[in-house]
Design a protein that fits this description.
The complex is a heterodimer of chains A (about 525) and B (about 150). Chain A is α/β, with parallel strands linked by helices and about 525 residues long. Chain A has helices spanning about 10-15, 35-40, 55-70, 80-170, 180-210, 220-240, 260-275, 310-315, 335-345, 385-400, 410-420, 435-445, 460-470, 480-490, 495-500, 515-520, and strands spanning about 25-30, 45-50, 220, 245-250, 255, 280-290, 295-305, 350-355, 360-370, 380, 400-405, 425, 450-455, 475. In chain B, helix 2 (about 50-60) runs parallel beside helix 3. The longest helix of chain B has 13 residues, at about 30-40. Classes of the chains: A alpha/beta (about 525), B alpha/beta (about 150).
């Protein structure tokens, strides 16, 4: 028996030739072609239709059967080529629909590609725009800074001359002075000093707002600072016959703080206390370990002044808030003093609040963490941006932290196995092991080790949602003011301690709650 | 332009030589106030109001001490300090005075070897004390670190 193989269209041609070269035709078709084949079989000498897969034995049996009865093949006469037409149409239709299908698919994929390209272009454009905006903002920020520096310089220069000429007169360098002019000149010089404080406050507020304020954290003695403060303000108190006393816990160790800035805070508070306390009243400064937190130092400044109504107590630390003067007099200052105090205390990772009773007096309370150098927190900073790592390493080291950095999660984990940090600060999007993976590993290996996620991702981004599975963590958005980061690290330090002691528990946001603490005074 | 404000001051016979202080300060009122103050303390003063005159005067007068402003026309106080120390063989103590609030100036002053750094408005008593100590060859405690009130 002779066999010839042919593809589909050839097979059709062979079958429809006027003189059939074959003894018989067996169609072997796919399952979905069976109906079509059966229809075709009506028109030509198809012996049988088999559906794939065809078992070998069945195929051989069918061939034998076809050969047996094909000695006189019967040909179906197709009138007037009708078969060719209909057959061709069937095929053409099928082909056309297939072509149309493919074309549609091609079109769709091209559209998709175009869309993707467009998105890529848009993303690039947005990124460029963002970068430009960022540069603009940085430049504007610098311009504002420069402007304030210039203004401050231009205000202070004539003020210096005015104050010094007044001093020259007071000191009698231009001849002896009668008591009354001397008194007037003293008032003038005090006004100069108030003006200088005002300029300094404005500068400080600007620095705080532009994140340019830098603390110089050095282990220092709080009792020495308070003694110096009492010595400086003693004469002011004496003038109003106010008793100004200090009491510092004798064994209070040195701890790191910015001496000038803390002095600024306490001086401001004591000065206010002296201002609002009537003659023959008393102002006391007390300092010691915080009663409910051995890791913090609490400083209380208590006066027998006019006190504050409770609704004022919560607002006095707000920027530009001015305490109304009781007898309708004009209030002094631009409303920056206590705001700056609060911000400076926050920069130290502490908290400030006031407890006051109208007509009885006020107690201002400053509480700052006492992280001594031997217990300096080890902070691991993980970010793939080298500039960010360098900046943070510098800033955090200056604040007194022991800082190490890693450029991705893999390297961070390697470091952590060698030396476990107290707090991990990590970015989310990083090559190799990203922030979420790192967080997952930390949770698996080190339980509730405090983690701060410092990210530019929006809170509803997919990565954030994945990270939520491995909470708790503290989320900070980039760009994050250094002060806020420091404050957050400090606030986590209790957690770090309890974690290293093997305790577990839910991580509550551990920032001081002033309302809750106020009751404990 | 160099102005010498020594003619009107009566000579003190007790001292063999009055110490000379060069004031480099572009604000005329401040330099005048400083001169009055320093003369009352018994010093001889010379005033210069820009970097070039400041350096010229320093080379000509050979002051015992220089009071230097930081922001000056034609450069800055640090440039003057550096050149004074390079060009004058005898060590010349320098005290900076500035109204500028730019960060890092105090550190910069230390770098160029200043003995003290005062912010304006300065406290005359403290400034005079710093000058007295320096001229007596004693170390100066830098501007009182207490936040002034």
């Amino acid at each position: 028996m002779k066999t010839t193989s042919a593809n589909r269209s050839d097979a059709m041609d062979i079958m429809t030739l006027p003189t059939a070269p074959t003894k018989g035709v067996i169609l072997v078709v796919d399952d979905d072609e069976r109906d079509e084949a059966r229809a075709l079989a009506k028109y030509c000498s198809v012996s049988d239709v088999l559906t794939k897969p065809v078992p070998r034995s069945e195929l051989l049996a069918t061939i034998d059967a076809a050969c047996a009865c094909s000695t006189a093949p019967t040909r179906v006469q197709v009138p007037n080529g009708e078969f060719d037409e209909e057959h061709r149409r069937l095929l053409t239709d099928k082909l056309a629909s297939k072509v149309a299908e493919l074309e549609a698919a091609l079109k769709a994929s091209k559209a998709k590609e175009a869309e993707l390209l467009k998105t890529v272009h848009e993303t690039i454009k947005t990124e460029q725009a963002l970068e430009e905006t960022n540069r603009d903002l940085l430049r504007k920020n610098q311009e504002i800074q420069n402007f304030y520096h210039t203004v401050s310089h231009e205000l202070k220069t004539p003020l210096t001359a005015a104050r010094e000429f007044i001093s020259i007169l007071i000191d009698g360098l231009a001849g002896p002075l009668e008591p009354v002019p001397q008194e007037y000149l003293r008032i003038a010089r005090e006004s100069c000093d108030r003006l200088r404080i005002c300029i300094d406050d404005l500068m400080d507020a600007t620095r705080l707002e532009t994140g340019k304020l830098r603390l110089e954290m050095k282990p220092s003695s709080l009792s020495a600072l308070i003694r110096k403060l009492v010595l400086t303000l003693g004469p002011v108190a004496a003038r109003k016959q106010i008793s100004l006393t200090e009491e510092v816990q004798p064994d209070l160790p040195d701890f790191p703080f910015d001496e000038n800035r803390l002095m600024q805070v306490l001086a401001n508070l004591v000065n206010n206390a002296l201002k609002f306390t009537p003659e023959k009243g008393s102002v006391s400064i007390a300092a010691g370990e915080a009663p409910d937190d051995p890791e913090a130092v609490r400083i209380l400044i208590k006066d027998t002044g006019c006190g504050l109504p409770s609704e004022e107590a919560d607002r006095i630390f707000e920027r530009l808030y001015q305490v109304p003067v009781p007898d309708g007099g004009s209030s002094q200052g631009v409303g920056l003093g206590l705001y700056i105090c609060r911000e400076l205390v926050h920069s130290h990772g502490g908290e400030i609040w006031v407890d006051s009773q109208l007509g009885v007096g006020s107690t201002f309370c400053v509480e700052i963490p006492k992280v001594t150098p031997s217990e300096a927190l080890h902070v691991l900073f993980v970010d793939d941006d080298s500039r960010m790592r360098e900046l943070m390493s510098r800033v955090l080291t200056r604040t007194g932290f022991d800082v190490t950095t890693a450029e991705d999660g893999t390297l961070a984990l390697q470091q952590m196995k060698r030396s476990l940090p107290d707090v991990v600060i990590t970015d989310l999007a990083m090559p190799n092991t990203d922030g979420v993976e790192l967080l997952k590993e930390i949770r698996q290996q080190w339980g509730l080790l405090p983690v701060i996620i410092l990210t530019g991702c929006s809170p509803d981004a997919a990565a954030m949602r994945r990270a939520m599975e491995f909470s708790p963590f503290t989320l900070l958005a980039k760009p994050c003011p250094t002060e806020q980061l420091i404050k957050t690290i400090c606030s986590l330090r209790h957690k770090a301690v309890s974690c290293s002691a093997g305790k577990t528990g839910t991580l509550v946001r551990p920032l001081c709650n002033s309302a809750a603490r106020r009751k404990k005074i | 332009m160099t102005t010498t404000l020594t003619q009107t001051e009566p000579r003190q016979q007790t001292e063999t030589r009055r110490k000379k202080i060069l004031i480099v300060e572009d604000d005329k009122s401040i330099s005048m106030a400083l001169a009055i103050r320093l003369k009352s303390c018994g010093y001889e003063t010379t005033i210069a109001s820009d970097t070039v005159t400041g350096l010229e005067s320093a080379l000509k007068v050979g002051p015992d001490l220089v009071l230097l402003d930081v922001s000056l026309p034609a450069g800055n106080g640090f440039m003057v300090a550096e050149r004074i120390q390079r060009l004058i063989p005898a060590p010349t103590p320098i005290i900076f005075l500035t109204a500028s609030t730019q960060p890092g100036l105090r550190e910069k002053a230390q770098e160029v070897g200043a003995v003290a750094f005062f912010k304006k408005p300065y406290d005359a008593e403290e400034l005079c004390e710093a000058i007295r100590l320096t001229l007596a060859g004693l170390p100066v405690e830098d501007e009182r670190r207490v936040y002034q009130l």
